[in-house]
Amino acid sequence: MAAVALAVTDGMLHYELSVAVEIFGSDLTHIVDPWYDFTLCGSGPVHVGRFRLEPDHGFDHLTQADTVIVPGWADTDREPPAELVEAVRAAHEAGARVASLCTGAFVLGAAGLLDGRRATTHWAHTDELARRHPAATVDPDVLYVDNGDVLTSAGKAAAMDLCLHLVRLDHGSADANKIARRLVIPPHRDGGQAQFIATPLPAPGSNHPLDGLFPWALERLDQPLTVEDLARQARMSSRHLGRHFKHLTGTTPLQWLHAQRIRHAQELLETTNATVDTIAAATGMGTATTLRRHFHRSVGVPPDAYRRTFRP
Q: Nearest-CA neighbor of 140 among 179, 185, 89, 192?
């Protein structure tokens, strides 16, 4: 059972903290068994807004965790507590994967974990994070950044995206999607998606101009869809479609389609014994060579290596 520890101290943001508790601290063994061994770690009773928390262990326990989560840090104008910074640094040195939610990135920065790495935080604080930690490459336009052992998210809802991304890495897309359905949220938003998303994807029957387009496209990933095909289905010009798509998803129609094809390929690799050629056809990639190239570029490993992670 993987151990997840949440590093808590006075001055944390209660929403980001509760997101981590809801996902990693809930008993979800009816969905994934075994689930995580979850603990709260702090130096004593913690006040988070109007809430009071009693940590299970001291900060020294962070070194025993496989994953350490650092919630948002409320007052970015002052440095986070030295004991918290030192404990997070020690946990990383001991081999823990460290993830920050929203302005928790300032704690990781103070620990030196962002030096030489890409990172993000809430868009309102990216300039300050970059100023304070010039050795980091701060990206204000993404939902989260995954460096393998160090991960950072943008604000609020993006914290949920990063937590589900961690579940997806540990347990696969199918189980992560089950957790998302339990939380009544979209199953996957790619980390490279823009922070500014004006509205959620329209539900069928909502009378939105793109009503029904997304499920229509998802049912046809095996077909060579073009922007013109999508525009024709939505009954609008390609240029008009592009504007609506950018407003809704923060990306272009083709980039969104590509991300869905890769996601579907991941699910098939995790849950079936289909050959790479068969999966290439099912996801509209055409050939195994094309799938391998795009999959490796997007996921970081070839399809066969990805499958071995989930289906040894």
A: 192
Closest by alpha carbon to 121, among 96, 95, 99, 148? 99
CA 44 to chain centre: 30
Mean pLDDT of 7-29: 93
pLDDT higher than 90, residue 73: no
Q: Report the interhelical angle of 253-271 vs 173-183 (nearest 10°).
A: 110
Rounded to the nearest angstrom, the gap between the alpha carbon of residue 298 and the centroid of all alpha carbons in its chain is 14
Q: Which residue has the tokens 């699910």?
A: 267
pLDDT at 211 over 80: no
**pLDDT for residue 88:** 98
The secondary structure of residue 45, as a DSSP letter, is -
Distance CA 17, CA 22 (A): 9
- Split at pLDDT 50, 70, 90, the class of 198 is very low
What number of other Cβ atoms are within 10 A of residue 32's Cβ?
A: 17
pLDDT tens figures, 244-289 = 888 777 788 898 899 889 889 988 988 899 999 999 999 999 999 9
- Beta-strand relationship, 118-119 and 46-48: unpaired
SS3 100: strand
Task: Cite the DSSP H helix spans in 94-237.
Answer: 105-110, 126-132, 157-171, 173-183, 213-218, 227-234
Using CA atoms, how far apart are residues 66 and 168, in angstroms rounded to an integer? 15
